[in-house]
Amino acid sequence: MAIPRFDLWRDIADLQERVARLLEESFPTYERKKEVWIPPADVVEDEKEIVVFLDLPGVDQKNIEISVSGDQVTVKGERKPLDGEVRFLRQERVYGPFSRAFALRVPVDVDRVTATYRNGVLEIRLPKVEEQRARRIVIQES
């Protein structure tokens, strides 16, 4: 029997979405105010690197900021609302700023970190620092 996967942030976002829909349907004058947008992410690791995949559909690449500091990588950005006056018949997408931080359990080579953004998916590759190998020190005669 498979154990169900628990994702606290996704569960919070789903609950928030359900409450917003309930309020919209129950009270036609309800308008969504400052909602928190938590883009879904996958973080994978192998022997050589850690890779973060972040779903950011509708986010302009210019509005994404990535930083690596100490033992974490942080991604910040904003999904801008539609331009001009728009009368929504239904609004389910969340707009506005977001921020995600991911703890890295191993040191990474900050100078070799790369990021690509294709089809609304941000991919951040964080190469691990090669382990320092022990070496024998020879004592020189004086």
From TrEMBL:
All copies of domain SHSP, residue ranges: 32-142
Database matches in PROSITE patterns: SHSP
InterPro entries named in the record: A-crystallin/Hsp20_dom (IPR002068), HSP20-like_chaperone (IPR008978), Small_HSP (IPR031107)
UniProt record similarity statement: Belongs to the small heat shock protein (HSP20) family.
UniProt name for this protein: Hsp20/alpha crystallin family protein
Source organism (scientific name): Candidatus Caldatribacterium saccharofermentans
